[in-house]
Amino acid sequence: MELRSSHWFAGAGSRESWPHRSFMNKAGYPPDELHGKPIVGICNSWSELTPCNLHLRSLAQSVKNGIIEAGGLPVEFPTISLGETLMRPTTMFYRNLMSMDVEESIRGNPIDGVVLLSGCDKTTPAQLMGAASVDLPALMVTGGPMLNATFRGEQVGSGTDLWRYTDEVKAGRMSAEEFEDLELAMTRSTGHCMSMGTASTMASLAEALGMTLPANAAIPAVDSRRYAFAQRSGRRIVEMIREDLRPSKILTREAFENAIRVNVAIGGSTNAVVHLLALAGRAGVELELDDFDRLGRGIPRLVNLKPSGQYLMEEFFNAGGVPAVMAELGDLLHRGALTATGKSAGENVATAKSHDPDVIAPLTKPVKADASIAVLRGNLAPGGAVIKPSAASPGLLRSRGRAVVFESIEDYQNRIDDPDLDVDASCVLVLKGTGPAGYPGMPEVGNFPLPRKMILAGVTDMVRISDARMSGTAYGTCVLHVAPEAAVGGPLALVRNGDPIELDVPGRRLQLDVPESELAVRRAGWSALPDVAGGYSRLYRHHVMQADRGVDFDFLVGTRGSTLTR
Ligand code: FES
Fold this sequence. Notes:
alpha/beta; Rossmann fold; 4 domains; 4-stranded parallel beta sheet; 20 helices; 14 strands; globular; binds FE2/S2 (inorganic) cluster
């Protein structure tokens, strides 16, 4: 087979190829190493500003060992990385930028295939999106979750318990010093968040899609088996190049349907909705927001992990991880879907089973019978909105209340704890200006904390509605991803204090009970955001699509292939 990289390195004495070989010589590669062998890029999202991915350079070494063993030549390269907890305004603002970096770095360089090293929330979808748009053989290895955490004898999950304890501090029931102890206990090793938050979710879905070798998602970051797994992945990518096994053969409609159902079974993050929609767009697969509801309905939650359940990723790993979940789901999945192993999803998990029914329950006795993400529609969300009923309070899933409106995150921060805020437990809290264009970057503030006076009164949950996302580690009766968002003139922009809002999750409805004539008057008075002066922010604002389209840029949709004409 003719290798793509030979277009750079083949041809002894050729004017075109000698600079390529000569300058690679700086890395110590003799000329004969550079042609005839598959050259495998290792796309590394390591960064000291992405603490969850801090160990990816040592993991890359294991990938390299595997590539060399299989007769390939590894070349590691960096891209921008996205540290969830540090980047502002939010990492989601940069997901598409990272995907562009990944796409162009793969296409523009002399590589025949790529191993994608990701971990923290957005690094996984960004790499998958970029790789799908190039469509060279690609295999993902995620960094794995950090070790479980214990605080005061209680197991605590990343994010999930921080949200809870934040409310305790707010209520004066926990001191700042105690909270600092919790902070330190929470992050005691490298790796990504160890609840079923967005990072664990996206690692699991990369596996369910067939873009990793089986068992990738749950192996702890510091477990020696993660390194052995990385080495095996290095070997496998060389074979994938020889087999010409590209993302377009793996990322089919069937693969996405599997991922949607696995996401329900693991109790995965609502963020998976925007990431899978964006990835499907890159792969040229027709996937719509309503598919998440339609395909997920009736699928049970099998995995008992925080934030919806009890355990953390170490228990998930010991119980059998994603292969055990896929084996349990059986014929609810497309078992014939091709995966990175070259085998079908069904073949991959033929011998897998749950080793702990408390953590991965059998299909016959699930943790929750119907755990689908619900897609809501109505005059408040004509483009749709999502809610995770399994993380919500059952008593609020069908409710009606008057709106308490915050026009922006700053307005919310300034007034939420005002003792004079006109609010009671039956109210619906509405937060605007937190969508893809408005914030910008659709931050994870959709589970915004309740007013202090409600917490002090013992209220633990209220209906919250926003155009934001919610951390995968979070919980609450939070209606998210309202589309179109307020900042582009969606109906959310028109809500005013006191408006009655009806939430009916079983009926999939989200309704603003204000006459259309009144809404027309408010719409006429609405004014758009001022334009952005320049730079990436301008590109972002002008091209970002709404949540129901995955928040991708309109010009990035589709596969552009790996061919270079010059
Ligand atoms: Fe990186 Fe949670 S902050 S995965």
